[in-house]
Amino acid sequence: MKNDLKNTTFLIPLRMDSMVRFENLLMTVEHLLRYFETNIIVLQADKYENGIVPHLLGKKVKYRFVEDYDMVFYRTKYLNQMTCEVNTPFIGIWDADVIVPNRQVIDSIEKLQAGYEIAYPYDGHFYDTTDIVREMYFKNRQLKILETNQYKMNLSYSKESLGGAFMANRQAYIDAGMENEEFYGWGPEDWERCERWRVFAYKIYRAEGNLYHLSHSRGNNSMHRSLDQFVNTNKRCKLTALSNAKDLKNTYQWQCLQ
């Protein structure tokens, strides 16, 4: 029996930069659909659309293509657009390469229904599978492959990762600014976003358990573009941490225009 998560929409924006990334997307979506009756939107932004992605995703996934010739994948902008297009009370912001055990997703949704604004479906342990374990998982799609081979994986970002996936009360997420579009390309937006939620005194929950990141090569959209970008984005994180809720509301006009 699948769990009823029709009150939730999972948002997955991506730039398809390799065949491995494409396979990861299919495994991520397949895992969600195996356990949940839910809504999934995949947005692909690229120079052209070849029709392969929507064909293989199938009719259970809403797919949208955006023609985009920019070498930099503007993920924050696309996530904000996607958030404004849905009307379910809860959303899941998901990378195209992550597997989260279904019990942790259910736990997170239950906490949102109980009044939390934000729920991370893992405890901060963000494990990169390595190519070998990823291939093992690809062959049989069994979660136990990931869980029993954890010791072979690399722990990314320390034990307090804020990336990969989170779930939110959609309106609370909008009220606190959604994604900060000052983050253009790869950067520490996960940390800035969480600092903003803390400024707004949101109740944030962390489920017990790991997140598994399916390994892939690192392209230009998986690293800082320059030293200036690194300095400026980290400065933005510090400014947010030192702000109060009124300052943030006055600085940014975040809303979904109907």
Key descriptive features of the protein:
alpha/beta, 258 residues, 11 strands, Spore Coat Polysaccharide Biosynthesis Protein SpsA, Chain A, seven-stranded mixed beta sheet, 22% strand, 10 helices, four-stranded mixed beta sheet, globular
Structure description:
By secondary structure, the protein is an alpha/beta fold. It has helices at residues 19-35, 52-57, 75-85, 102-113, 130-140, 143-148, 170-175, 189-199, 227-241, 245-251; strands at 3-14, 36-46, 62-67, 90-94, 98-99, 118-120, 126-128, 154-156, 165-169, 204-206, 211-213. Strand 1, helix 1 (19-35) and strand 2 (36-46) form a beta-alpha-beta unit. Helix 8 packs parallel to helix 9. The relative contact order is 0.16.
List the helices and strands and how they pair.
Layout: E1 3-14, H1 19-35, E2 36-46, H2 52-57, E3 62-67, H3 75-85, E4 90-94, E5 98-99, H4 102-113, E6 118-120, E7 126-128, H5 130-140, H6 143-148, E8 154-156, E9 165-169, H7 170-175, H8 189-199, E10 204-206, E11 211-213, H9 227-241, H10 245-251
Parallel strand pairs: 1-2, 1-4, 2-3, 6-10, 7-11
Antiparallel strand pairs: 4-9, 5-11, 6-9, 7-8
